[in-house]
Predict the structure.
Amino acid sequence: MAASTPDFKRVLPLRTAVSTSAGLASAAINFLACVEIAEYAGGNSAWLALLVAGVLILFAGANFSELNGMYPSSAAIRVWTRRGLNDTWSLVMSLVYATTVTFVIAADAFVLGHVFQAALPQIPGLIWIVVLLAIVTAINLRGIRIAGIVQDANGFFLLATLVIFSLIVLLHAHTPLLLPRLFHLGPNWFQAVAVGVFIYVGFEWVTPLAEEFEDSRMIPRGMFIALGLIAVGFGLFSLALTVVFPNAAVLKHSLVPQLVVGMRALGPLGFWWMVVVSLTTAMTTFNGGMATASRFVYALARERVLPAKVGRLNAFLVPQTALLILAAASLGLAIIVYLTGQYMFLINAGAAVESFMYAATAIVVWNLRRREPRTARPFRSWGVPAMSWLMAVIFTLLGIGSMLAPSGEHGFPGPLVFLTLLTVGAYLYVRHVVPKLRAARRPIKRVVPKL
């Protein structure tokens, strides 16, 4: 598979690498995760748990940076795992991985629907979900440059306003009482670190845009800057949350903890401030997810893994069919989740897939160091092979923990069942459908008769 293609124009700057990477990780469900982190941390050390989790994610970012530098492509992880593992399981992993964006969008839409319904109860939350997805889809259909500008505006506004809000809250805190608790580690602090990892999940989805950046080397820079911004933004918010609610457990049953924190801290101003922040999380997650995942799906179609129609570009060089399929799937799943209220299993399933992919990329980096030692590497990951295997073990365990998380009544392991069925379905598709797609689109050889 070629590392670049004339299908796309290289128009995206470094700031869009930052805003896309940070925006994809800055979902509204992060506010629920902040509550859980604060509860486990048992004090004002939630920020420290997020910082430690960020260090772990830095190693994952280093692995993605090395692989992206070797083979910058809209196919992203498909290229790397095919070379570092094997073709069949690379395809299965890619198909499962491609669905994680719809998981995140659907779960995020559920939370956002409740945010807007709390703010404007006369308008059903489901209406907001439909409208926002329609707006984001329309923006993306007009081209990556416009989608990038929207991502930049929302992504940087989100993080800036989150930091400002948190600092205002902290400046009003009673500092002598706050400082001694900044490093107080609760009995479940390591669980807080484990949950903290998932605050950053999705940062790597910027890699499928490699063929549309002015220079693909901007992606590693953008990812590392984004991870720092996420750590600052949500670390400060977690600290502000524990200042406003020293016992974070009281928020654990709320779907809109950011609104509750905003109201308690700054009154109506804080409430509406956090409504606006929630709106920007929708725009960054939906917009960034549609832009990156549509390129990834398009790349799979370009490789004859999906039907030919999925691999077509419109007049604005956008994979229109792939984009519309993703939008329809995200909307359908979001409606189901909103009506049933079963969103936690999607969050855990998405977190499990992401964790397993982080583990896989660590192994792929090590394998490619052995198989392709002379391939140019603009960026080299750290501590290979020792850190590669350590990260593979850590992220595998985190993935198993997410996959076995109970959902619903009687502790039913919904994520495990869901991902098992999804993986089996992807495997059957690769074994029985992909060969037919490739055979049907194979060029016909011209036979020249002998004279």
Remarks:
- Residues 172 and 265 are 9 Å apart (CA to CA).
- The domain at 14-345 is CATH 1.20.1740.10 (Amino acid/polyamine transporter I).
